[in-house]
């Protein structure tokens, strides 16, 4: 539907009605790699969402052990062969994709919520609270990430008083890993949001809102947050890639997603033992992690170009993706 | 400057104190505390025995007191005994530190030797074909899961081609001289690929930022050759953020690379911490975690000081 001029009834030419979002979409569409990445990610999402359907067609499920057909070659029944316990590799990859994507997106979102909350409070209130929160953020950033994540992932939730039947539930390790990674991932967003809030706080439209009697809650919700949403989106997109890497590392080390639930990381836990028998088995999960993470990074890069044309992506980026503390 | 360092040292000590308490609480929450292990090992144990054992080891005291006790011993250089290796923790950390340092220094040097020229080369012609290619490689390096990279390296060079050993340091195989260097190749290559991507992007970003400055235009307007502009004016300024990066990564030289070391059975700090956590070796895990935190914090401090020394415009708070 084209929009019409209210007085003359003539349709307004599309070029004049270009909203900021449409301009951003246009800039994004020029970013070919980002487009391909988006398509790849959508494909992965749809494919892993279809995992139960595929299981139905193949007449098996991702956790069906068949010790008589270990390390099976690709066949009609098992298109990518079978693993060290005779389970179907394709199905496990698809279900693992569900886990990786879900952990990536939800953990990054959790981190964004925590970071936005802390950043807005620090930037808007200022004073000692700002000083305290930013010292705290600096402290968290300066911690050795991976050793701490491993300790956090290794603690026994039973000692925290969480009932055993909850802990032994299948999805417990999923929620746990989401929470643990979010606990350390909010710092980038917090810093970005604080800096943006500090600048916005002094702008005229905030002053006029205050003069009209708007309370701090309303100013934050209606005037601050809509203006900081762009950096949050970019940082969160880039964080998804990091989270997926982190999850795969922890699961690989046996501290993340617990078997029998498959994840791309824990499918490689025993890779060093079966690498002699079935090298291809070690290839697929890592390749999928790699493709997903690089696609997310390209997407984030494209979004940055599209949403934030004034900020130059050639800057030493402040968006955390080039964090020197990479998982090694 | 002196005041700044002094304040920062105090802050570092404070963070260390907080982290040590947090880590103490967390490590106490790991499964398999010593008394639990004794209970499972001895079915004839009675609850009175358990209570006595707890009193003996001081586990009946409140958490804060126990932490304080740990802190006091640690400050006196006593980190206790490692349950896993049945040795004093301090005796284990020394060799592990040296092994990590060897591995990390080699990969650090190699990564920078690639990233500095590549990043600068890309930055001199942004959005050109070569910039595009280098950027693509850097993105790939940032996105590759390091443990998988190590696995593939083992698969290709150790399992299929038999060129290089799959892990270890060679001490067990009595490797001498340059033979022992062969054990370094795969872990160093893995670590380098894992870190070179972010290094390249960092160098490139910082150089592009500098090349846009007014003093570069002035230097060009003076008629300086492009080479002179880059070498005399751009590099000096463009390398300042890189010094910060080096400081931030300084800690990892000592805390090691947890994944790579575990994968290649390299007996460094990262593997030690991992083994301690997996094996519920409380004393060792605590000491390893504290050391990793300390060196990271010192690295951050060095980064700030280095930045200030190189750029007098930077104000320290």
UniProtKB/TrEMBL annotation, chain B:
Listed GO biological process terms: transmembrane transport
Start and end residues of each ABC transmembrane type-1 domain: 97-303
Residue spans crossing the bilayer: 12-30, 105-124, 136-163, 183-203, 242-264, 284-303
Keyword annotations of the record: Cell membrane, Membrane, Transmembrane, Transmembrane helix, Transport
Domain of life: Bacteria
Location in the cell: Cell membrane
Membrane topology note: Multi-pass membrane protein
GO cellular component, as recorded: plasma membrane
Family: Belongs to the binding-protein-dependent transport system permease family.
Name the UniProt record assigns to this protein: Diguanylate cyclase
Organism of this sequence: Thalassospira profundimaris
Phylogenetic lineage: Bacteria, Pseudomonadati, Pseudomonadota, Alphaproteobacteria, Rhodospirillales
């Amino acid at each position: 539907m084209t929009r019409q001029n209210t007085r003359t009834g003539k349709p307004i030419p599309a070029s004049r009605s270009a909203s900021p979002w449409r301009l951003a979409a246009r800039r994004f569409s020029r970013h070919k790699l980002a487009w391909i990445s988006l398509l790849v990610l959508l494909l992965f999402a749809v494919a892993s969402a279809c995992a139960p359907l595929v299981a139905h067609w193949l007449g098996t499920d991702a956790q069906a052990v068949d010790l008589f057909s270990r390390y099976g070659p690709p066949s009609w029944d098992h298109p990518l062969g079978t693993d060290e316990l005779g389970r179907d590799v394709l199905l496990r990859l698809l279900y693992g994709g569900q886990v990786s994507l879900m952990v990536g997106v939800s953990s990054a979102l959790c981190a964004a919520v925590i970071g936005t909350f802390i950043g807005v409070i620090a930037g808007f209130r200022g004073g000692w609270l700002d000083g305290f929160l930013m010292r705290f953020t600096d402290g968290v950033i300066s911690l050795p990430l991976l050793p701490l994540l491993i300790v956090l992932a290794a603690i026994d939730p039973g000692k925290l008083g969480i009932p055993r039947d909850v802990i032994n539930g299948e999805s417990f390790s999923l929620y746990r890993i989401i929470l643990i990674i979010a606990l350390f991932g909010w710092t980038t967003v917090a810093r970005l949001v604080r800096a943006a809030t500090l600048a916005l706080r002094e702008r005229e439209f905030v002053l006029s809102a205050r003069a009209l009697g708007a309370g701090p809650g309303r100013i934050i919700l209606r005037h601050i947050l809509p203006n900081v949403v762009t950096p949050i989106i970019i940082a969160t997109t880039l964080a998804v890639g990091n989270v997926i890497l982190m999850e795969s590392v922890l699961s690989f080390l046996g501290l993340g997603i617990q078997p029998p639930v498959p994840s791309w990381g824990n499918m490689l836990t025993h890779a060093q033992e079966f690498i002699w028998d079935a090298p291809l088995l070690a290839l697929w999960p890592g390749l999928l992690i790699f493709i997903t993470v690089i696609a997310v990074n390209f997407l984030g890069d494209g979004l940055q170009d599209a949403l934030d044309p004034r900020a130059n992506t050639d800057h030493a980026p402040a968006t955390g993706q080039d964090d020197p503390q990479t998982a090694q | 400057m002196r005041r700044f360092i002094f304040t920062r040292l105090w802050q570092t000590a404070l963070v260390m104190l907080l982290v040590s308490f947090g880590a103490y609480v967390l490590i106490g929450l790991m499964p398999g505390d010593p008394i639990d292990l004794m209970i499972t090992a001895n079915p004839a144990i009675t609850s009175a025995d358990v209570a006595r054992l707890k009193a003996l080891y001081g586990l009946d005291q409140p958490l804060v007191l126990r932490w304080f006790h740990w802190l006091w011993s640690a400050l006196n250089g006593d980190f206790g005994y490692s349950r896993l290796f049945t040795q004093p923790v301090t005796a284990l950390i020394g060799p592990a530190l040296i092994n990590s340092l060897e591995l990390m220094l080699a990969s650090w040097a190699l990564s920078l030797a690639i990233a500095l020229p590549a990043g600068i080369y890309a930055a001199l012609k942004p959005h050109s074909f070569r910039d595009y290619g280098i950027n693509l490689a850097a993105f790939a390096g940032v996105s590759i899961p390091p443990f998988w990279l190590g696995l593939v390296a083992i698969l290709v060079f150790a399992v299929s081609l038999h060129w290089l050993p799959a892990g270890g340091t060679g001490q067990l195989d009595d490797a001498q001289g340059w033979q022992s260097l062969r054990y370094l190749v795969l872990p160093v290559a893995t670590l380098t690929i894992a870190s070179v991507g972010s290094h390249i992007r960092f160098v490139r970003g910082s150089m592009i930022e500098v090349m846009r400055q007014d003093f570069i235009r002035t230097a060009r307007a003076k008629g300086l050759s492009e080479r002179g502009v880059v070498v005399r004016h751009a590099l000096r300024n463009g390398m300042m953020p890189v010094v910060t990066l080096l400081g931030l990564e300084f800690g990892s030289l000592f805390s090691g690379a947890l994944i790579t070391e575990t994968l290649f059975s390299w007996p460094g700090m990262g593997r030690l911490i991992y083994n301690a956590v997996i094996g519920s070796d409380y004393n060792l895990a605590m000491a390893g975690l504290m050391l990793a935190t300390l060196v990271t914090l010192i690295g951050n401090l060095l980064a700030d000081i280095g930045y200030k020394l190189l750029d007098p415009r930077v104000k320290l708070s």
